[in-house]
Amino acid sequence: MPINTITTTTERELSWQETALCAQTGPEFFFPAPGSSIREAKRLCGACEGRVACLEYALSNDERFGVWGGLSENERLRLRRGPR
Ligand code: SF4
Is the pTM of this model over 0.90? Predict the structure, then answer.
């Protein structure tokens, strides 16, 4: 296999970023000021091809801030904690 066809795990894990809709809009929707609406971020995430991979990345890297994969900080925290 030619060396230039080898992709690292990191490259595969981050390939969803190439189609990330948030990269086309700017961070203000996804990292809003406290108390601001995240409705627009969630709407964009719902249409994003990389939503599942983005959410998996956020959960496995313990991303604490902002909207990732369509979930807010609190929603990701509840997901990590699981059912009670
Ligand atoms: S799911 Fe949302 S936060 Fe994740 S890459 Fe897509 S638009 Fe960005």
Answer: no
